[in-house]
Amino acid sequence: MEFDPLTHPRSMKSFQVPELSLLIARGMTSKDASVNGSAAADAAKLARRYNIPIGLHANLSEGSPVCEVLKKNSSLLNQDGFFHGKMGFRTALSKGLLNMSEVKQELKAQVELFHELTGHLPPHMDGHQHVHVLPEVRHVFAEVLEEYGIKYTRVPIEPGLHNCDWIPPSLMDFYLGVEEDSFNTVDVFTKHGIRWPDIYIGLSTMGRNMSVSSIGSAIDSALLQLRAKAAQGSAATIELMVHPGYPSVPPVGGCGQGPDDFSQSWERLHELQTLIKPELQSHYKSRNIQLCSFKDL
Q: pTM above 0.85?
């Protein structure tokens, strides 16, 4: 499929050269919650207390389902009774082993639980480990969003990804697979009236690769491409995917089977420390970038 993420007519705003860039830093200005996580209820309470915008990070690959009837004898579970995992989910899907009606059932159960915990439906919803753009799943995911009136999601197509030679080959292979799945998801989401930011950044700046310079370079490169392809005009929206936090200490954390490797690593804290650096805030100001959340769009 021929698709240019910088010119496709699916943006939340018209594709024009940004005089103002609106940066949605997921995890900082707008938080995603996985409702099957061990701290989901506490996270919802904190979001209400401090008025933190919160959306749903739908999880089909890590931990346990929230739908009671799927906790046993479900195609979504491995032999240990948990979700199949990041790559296990993809393998099961490719072999035709996943029941899409059960995928839809679990997604709806997670939306309902989110509503129960927060008192409102999620204004945005995406998929943990990008499962929402996978074949077959993308259709079910779009149907659920349309059914609940959830307007916004994530389409992880990152400008310049192919030039990021610091990403290990094995990880780059995964990222390029995510990119291809995302290309093939665009028309599905568009058909269902789902929107997403004009630009996505996050794969190249994740974890140990995050720095003030890497974020700044990724933003500048993406905006430069946008200026080259669009007419002078209004603001552009950018989603910066981030994972700030503190390393988990097992057995606390996770989604029912303990925390994963990334949540236990120093990289979470590294992201947090980077994102609050004054130099990064200065870069935003110098580029006329305004931090916002999905509720501001």
A: yes
pLDDT band at residue 29 under the 50/70/90 scheme: low
* Amino acid in position 268: R
Which residue ranges form the domains of the chain, and what is each CATH number? Answer: 21-296 (3.20.20.370)
SS (H, E, C) the chain: CCCCCCCCCCECCCCCECCCEEEEEECCCEEEECCCCCCHHHHHHHHHHCCCCEEEEECCCCCCCCCHHHCCCCCCECCCCCECCHHHHHHHHHCCCCCHHHHHHHHHHHHHHHHHHHCCCCCEEEEHHHHHHCCCHHHHHHHHHHHHCCCECCCCCCCCHHHCCCCCHHHHHHHHHHHHHHHCCHHHHHHCCCEECCEEECCCCCHHHCCHHHHHHHHHHHHHHHHHHCCECCCEEEEEECCCCCCCCCCCCCCCCCCCHHHHCCHHHHHHHHHCCHHHHHHHHHCCEEEECHHHC
Task: Measure the CA–CA gap between 180 and 186, rounded to whole angstroms.
Answer: 10
Percent share of the chain, pLDDT over 70:
88
